[in-house]
Amino acid sequence: MLLAPLRERNYRLWAGADLVSTAGTWMQVLGLNWVVLAATGSAAMMGAVVMLQSLPVLVLGGWGGALADRLPARPALILCQALRAALAFALAAGTGHVLIFAVALASGVISAFEGPMLGRFGSALVPREALGSALALGSVLGSAGRIGGMALGGVLVGVTGPAALFMINGISYLAALAALAAMRAGDLRSLPLAPPGEGGVRAGLRYLVSSPVVLIVLALSFVLGSLGRNYQVSMAAMAAGPLHGGSGAYGLLSTVFAAGAVAGGLLLAGSGRSTLPVLVASGVSISVLQLLSGLAPNLLGFAAALLPIAAGAVVFDTVVSTRVQLDTRADMRGRVLATTGIVSSLSGLVGAPAVGWLADTLGARGGLILCGLVTTAAAAGGALALARVTGGAIPGLRRVAEQPA
């Protein structure tokens, strides 16, 4: 199952281009952070740049999903990749404050429309039965691209300056454009478009309200994403606080987390089991492990807990994406995927400050333990709710009737 998606030529093209593009994207992220921090000395200004990239997804995500269900995915993605390349080359030419904020805002607008398109396009590259493995393998490639991009960018930014990182990112988007152009149109699976009168945001909301399984999955994703996935905050709090490790310890924990993420993606891609019982089991497991991680006596104990947490988090997130695609009508998929993106953005915007506040108020250990208790209760409640609406029991939830893809 692990290599099943790679049998498809179009998927191989896109996977290779995505790896290169993801590495370039994280090089640009590092370069932008460097420029903003060097120019202003303010972490708050860095936060403002991140917020400018997130807000358009919250505001425009519904319309992005509606367009994804009404437009052919491949031409739209070619336009989005070309616009991203232009923004990267603009940063390479100059990095004034106004330009940086404008690029951040424009990138967020593109993401609002591109995200649902990418989700729909992924289901056109592989057979339905290989979709779960394809998404898991994509997660592995994304983690590898992030690690490679940040590592290479960290070396280059001190040698060449940030402009070179922006130029490399722009070139990486050209690789994505070349992959899209080289794909065989005849090998792409047909994606039904929304019929007239059913392509709007309201129609998508009505469909979502009538899909209890998807609503429960999204609710679980929000709670576990906000209180259980903001480990960049809790890792820093633990390293600087009770573990007495400093910046070196934080770097070690970040590396362990990245390694766990890759392992989780490989595990799921190999099994191909993106089912509701796996979703529930991974959600409960990472929540209990989060609670226990707050009791870790030392750095090595905390790192040992982080490894399976990171692996389980990737499994959980990938199964969420897979179920959202498989358990929704093909002509509604873009709008539901857009909702998933909105939930993810809200998780970061709400959860990161909340986890930070809890760490400041209750201490790093107390914050982790309380968040673990809440997410464990939410995961258990979600399991019961899914069992009720599907007429099954955990384990062994009755598989939701699948719509033709």
Automatic annotation (TrEMBL):
It holds the Pfam family MFS_3. It is a multi-pass membrane protein. Its main location: membrane. The chain crosses the membrane at residues 12-37, 43-64, 99-118, 130-157, 163-183, 204-228, 248-269, 302-324, 336-355, 367-389. SUPFAM superfamilies: MFS general substrate transporter. Coiled coil: none annotated. It is found in: Cell membrane. The keyword Chloroplast does not apply. It comes from the Bacteria. Keywords: Cell membrane, Membrane, Transmembrane, Transmembrane helix, Transport. PANTHER family: INTEGRAL MEMBRANE EFFLUX PROTEIN-RELATED, STAPHYLOFERRIN A TRANSPORTER. This is MFS transporter. It comes from Paractinoplanes globisporus.
